[in-house]
Write a structure and sequence with these properties.
alpha+beta, 3-stranded antiparallel β-sheet, 6 helices, extended, 183 residues, single chain, 3 strands
């Protein structure tokens, strides 16, 4: 099982959008959610993605399962370029890289001063490097470029600000972020 919703409900004020929704999603399932405007389809998806808690019921997912949701809106006024916006989804790798650089500097200092490298410092560095490598840190720039290429962003367009793109192209930016997050 990838995802399970049990007795999930959502209300807005006194209006009940949906109640007692129970759903299980398994690998290979294809599911459609159909209903009139205002019925709560997007709210249900936000709950399933873990972006919002349900008013009632509970949501659970399989171990190591990450639910992704293609956002329907993006703020085009942000000053970021397409490449910067898409790369932002891999920010956790930037954090790991900074941590590795700090630990490397500390290990270098220990070596320069003739101090013994502590087991704790070596362990922290090994852990950070393994997480960085496992997360695709060494190939992240190439992954970003490959996804942008696959979605039709020509090289010069990747450096342009989001504000210079239409809504359809902005949706492609969101799709690129979703693909890179590997849900």
């Amino acid at each position: 099982m990838l995802l399970r919703l049990e007795g999930v409900g959502r209300s807005v004020g006194a209006r009940v959008l949906f109640s007692d929704v129970t759903l299980a999603v398994y690998a290979g399932d294809r599911i459609g959610i159909v209903g009139p405007n205002g019925a709560g389809k997007t709210s249900l998806l936000h709950i399933a993605a873990g972006d919002e808690p349900p008013d009632t019921g509970r949501v659970s997912s399989g171990r190591d399962v990450r639910v992704g949701m293609l956002r329907q809106e993006i703020d085009p006024r942000r000053g970021a370029s397409v490449r910067e916006e898409v790369s932002s989804v891999l920010g956790h790798l930037d954090e790991l890289e900074r941590e590795m650089a700090q630990l490397e500097a500390e290990m270098t200092r220990c070596g320069r001063e003739g101090l013994e490298l502590t087991e704790e410092l070596a362990h922290r560095y090994d852990h950070a490097r393994a997480a960085f490598e496992f997360g695709g840190g060494f190939a992240r720039a190439a992954r970003v470029e490959r996804v942008l290429d696959g979605l039709g962003f020509a090289e010069p367009a990747r450096a342009r600000p989001l504000s210079s793109f239409s809504g359809g192209w902005l949706m492609r930016v969101e799709l690129a972020k979703l693909l890179l997050s590997a849900p």
